[in-house]
C-alpha cells in the first residue's frame, strides 16, 4: 500500500496544474461510453474491467482475461446520437489489447474516432495506454486530431482497487481558423468488491481543465448470475440501469437525468459477447427425480475449465427463495460429477419443487464466471428419464 503514495502525489500535482485557456470541442464525450459505467454514475475508473476501459482507464484492460465484443448505442435528450464498438484480445505475456471506434452525430455536426489500447499487469499494479484519433467537423471545416491517455491501477487487496487515469495526456488538437483541443482530464477512483464480486461500490473524482472538481459514485449488485441492478450519482444527478446475461451474451441499459428535477433523460444500451477464458457447463440427469421413486438421486456432471488455470470452485444448490440447500467448494478443478439425494445438510428430505444448481469458478488471475442449471424434485413422479444440459 505504501507504493500508492507516489501515485496520489503525482495526481495531486497534476490536478493543481490542470488549467487551460481553450474551450473544449469534446463535450460529446461527457456523455460517457457504456451503459454499465454510465448507470453507475460514471464512477468507473477503479472498476473498468470491460471493453469500455479504452475510454475510462486503459489500465483496467489488464484484468480483462477474455475476448469481448461490445456495441454501445446512446440516445440523448438533445437529439444527438452516439455509437461505439470495441473488441478485446488478451495476449499471453503482453497483456490485453483493445480496439474501438466511436461515431457521434448532432444535426450537421459529426465526429468519428478510433481507440487502440493496451493494459498490462505488473505484480499488484497494472498500467495502460490508449492512442486515439478523431475526425471532427466544425463550423469552419473538418480537422483531424491525435491524442493519448494513460492509466494505472493498484490492487494489492482482493476486495480493493485504487486507480488513476490521465485523459488527453496528449491532447487531440484541431487547427482550422482557430486551434481547438480536447482538455486535459484527470480521474482518480476506487472500487470495493464484496461477496465474490456480487457487489461493487465505486467512487471517482474528476478534474477537467477550466472546470470544477466533479464527484461520482456508483453501486452494482448482482443478486443472480444473470441479472445486475445498478445506480449512482453523476456529480449531482441520479443514474440507474440494469444488466442481463445468458451464457456468454450480455445486454446493459442505462438512464441518466439531466438534473435532479429534470424530465429529460439520456439513454444508453450495450450488447455484446464474452468468450475465450472459461469452458463451463452443468449437465443434470434426470431433470426431474423422485427420492421416493425409481430414480432416488440425480447425477450432476460439471464442465469446468479455465484458460489460466482454476484457483477455486464452488457448487451451490438453492431453493426458489435462494435459501442454501447444499454447498460444496474446493481448490483447483471441480469434481467431474456429484450425486445429490435431495437431502438437507441435517439429513432431512427437501420439499418438492425446483432447485437451482450454480457452479462458480475463480481462475488464477481472479476472473470469476458462473453457470446455472435447474433440477426438479417431485415425489409424485415414480421415475423420470429426461436430462438437461447447459453450457
Describe it for me?
- It is a single chain.
- The chain is mostly beta strands and 391 residues long.
- It folds into two domains: 4-275, Outer membrane protein transport protein (OMPP1/FadL/TodX) (Porin), CATH 2.40.160.60; 278-390, Macroglobulin (MG2) domain (Immunoglobulin-like), CATH 2.60.40.
- Helix content is 6%, strand content 58%.
- The chain has three helices and 25 strands.
- It has helices at residues 4-17, 35-39, 53-56, and strands spanning 67-75, 81-91, 95-106, 109-122, 125-138, 141-157, 160-170, 173-175, 179-181, 185-194, 199-208, 213-224, 227-234, 237-246, 249-257, 265-275, 278-285, 288-289, 298-306, 310-318, 324-331, 337-340, 353-363, 368-377, 388-390.
- The strands form four sheets. Strands 1-2-3-4-5-6-7-10-11-12-13-14-15-16 form a 14-stranded antiparallel β-barrel.
- Strand 11 and strand 12 form a beta hairpin.
- The protein is elongated.
- The model is unreliable at 1-24 and 384-389 (pLDDT under 50).
Number of domains: 2
Q: Summarize the biggest pleated sheet.
A: 14 strands, antiparallel, barrel
Helix and strand content put the structural class at mainly beta
Rg (C-alpha, Å) = 24 Å
CATH class of the largest domain: Mainly Beta
The run of helices and strands is HHHEEEEEEEEEEEEEEEEEEEEEEEEE
Average pLDDT over all residues: 85
Can you tell me the overall shape?
Answer: elongated
Might you state the CATH topology name of the largest domain? Porin
Which strand-content bin applies to the residues?
over 45%
How far is it from the N-terminal to the C-terminal residue, by CA? 40 Å
Relevant CATH superfamily of the largest domain:
Outer membrane protein transport protein (OMPP1/FadL/TodX)
What is the strand arrangement across the widest sheet? 1-2-3-4-5-6-7-10-11-12-13-14-15-16
Helix count, per DSSP? 3
Q: Could you list the spans in which at least 5 consecutive residues all have pLDDT below 50?
A: 1-24, 384-389
CATH architecture of the largest domain: Beta Barrel
